[in-house]
Amino acid sequence: MEDKHKTHHRTDYTKATLLENEAGDDPFQLFGRWLRTAEDEKLPEHNAMTLATAGSFSISCRVVLLRSFDREGFVFFTNYNSRKALDLERDPRAALSFFWPDHERQVRVEGRAEPLSDAENDDYFHSRPVESRIGAWSSDQSRVAEDRAQIDDRFARWKERLKDQDIPRPMHWGGYRVRPVRIEFWQGRPSRLHDRIVFERFGDGTWGRMRLQP
Predict the structure, then answer these.
(1) Predicted confidence (pLDDT) per residue in 19-76, tens digit
(2) Is 192 a catalytic site residue?
(3) Which domains are delineated in the chain?
């Protein structure tokens, strides 16, 4: 029988608080402040978020990058033939989580994902580095590869094919906007008595705020 690995490491969170007057009444303003603080302090991958989907035989999650957000939702890009995209086609429900351990903060988002418009996709695609645009053509994301050499060879062939031209966006590549219905902010506190403030969206588009027990 294999020995179980146990960890007894504990951290007492003491860096900040999240009281109602600090949270305010607008979850997007609060999220923006937290994200800007992480960016200003140059935290690694400050815009990384875990995306969870439930459209296939099992629930799946992976880390993707937030590319923009506003009051309409949170935007990321991917290959529309990838597992995450196929999951969202079957079931648009999605959850996001952001974690900034240096600030002892977490944000959880629940909502529904919808594809971006062609204009939004084109605009972002043409802002990407050239080799990233080539990669969008060469990679059959989430498909089985024989080995690394096959991936590198496909990239080299697409690079040759697309050289000396304005690389167009492949139709299988684009973005999603996760429109939130619930956003929870978590601030670590001592003795595991963390601050948890949750915002829920009402049918008329307004937001209500509640405190949750830790």
Answers:
(1) 999 999 999 999 999 999 999 999 999 999 999 999 888 899 999 999 999 999 999 9
(2) yes
(3) 20-126+172-212 (2.30.110.10), 130-168 (no CATH)
Reading the block at residue 154, the tokens are 């496909």
Of 192, 196, 201, 211, the catalytic one is 192
The span from the CA of 189 to the CA of 115, in Å, is 38
Read off the tokens for 109. 């988002």
Strands 195-201 and 207-212 turn out to be antiparallel
> What percent of the chain has pLDDT above 90?
83
Specify the long-range contacts of residues 67-72, CB closer than 8 Å, at least 24 apart: 67/124, 67/175, 69/28, 69/31, 69/32, 69/35, 70/28, 71/28, 72/177, 72/179
* Burial classification of residue 209, based on how many CB atoms lie within 10 Å of its CB (0-12 exposed, 13-18 middle, 19 or more buried): middle
